[in-house]
Amino acid sequence: MSEQPPPDLEELRQLAAGAPERIAATSSTDELSDLETQLVGRASLVAAARRSLGSIEDPKERGATGKAINDVAVSIQAALDERKSALASAERDAALANDAVDVTLPGKAPLRGTHHVIQSTMDEIVDIFVALGYDVASGPEAETAFYNFDALNIPETHPSRLESDTLYLDYGDEAEEVLLRTHTSPMQARYMEEHQPPAYVVVPGRVFRADAVDATHAPVFHQIEGLAVDDGITLGDLKGTLAHFAKEFFGPGTEVKFIPHYFPFTEPSAEMHAYTNGRWIELLGCGMVNPAVFEHVGYDPDAVTGFAFGMGVERMAMVRHGITDLRTLLDSDRRVLEQYK
Ligand code: PHE
Known about the structure:
Helices cover 41% and strands 21% of the residues. The chain is an alpha+beta fold. The site of phenylalanine has 11 residues, from strand 9 and strand 10.
């Protein structure tokens, strides 16, 4: 057995007397657990006193000293345990309070996306024609000169074919010219090639022209094409259908008038103007399908007649909402766009 000095009971009692104050001063279970190690752990005075009991020869004295050490240890441990449960419950309460969700607070409303006004205008126009029984189709934005021009009876020499108006794609060494469609009209020909008459269809889509951006022009914009081909369609059907459209889109009292115009793919051709916001405004181009177009797509020009029209979506949205600068539709500024929800 190693020679150890007998336990110093006086020192132990002082330790026991000072312990409650030190225990009370701890402010967290972590801090308390460090103090517990100091007071009663393996390296503590209490543990050292217990280890040195063996050096007391007299069994009676050893018993009494042992009991005295034990009393000190028990009293310190009791104070530690009491503080531990108080701190633990305070810490649990604090954690719960921290985590608490106050269900009575107003919620954070999630930001809701919506369609852009160009898209919603397009949808609304398409819906008006769908309600009349029209089919909806879409076609390629990269188009051949054949569908964009030739099939529509647009002559080789027409100025709209110039590079100053049309954006051509440098597409391999193909003999066929490929371009970004300048209107949705090529879908007239494509749709008729794919469908036997009667044909009633609207074609919403993006179109491209070599224009710089200003208040009324953009190199990319949207059109909606319409085509109705059947047995005995007349100019009266064209006027009635488009007058109905104007009333649906701008309001029941909307007046329209048709002014003669020229398009190679319709004959006769017209511009439809509508009276809105106190003035006449040009809305769209239209006309009776030129028999030359029927011949291109394999329809018998003696068996069917039809009308076609094409309108600019941005223009419709601008007239409807009194927007004077097209660029406000392109900026994606939420403060502006939210006004047209
Ligand atoms: N495609 C013509 C344009 O872009 C509009 C139009 C379509 C005119 C159909 C008549 C018939 O200007």
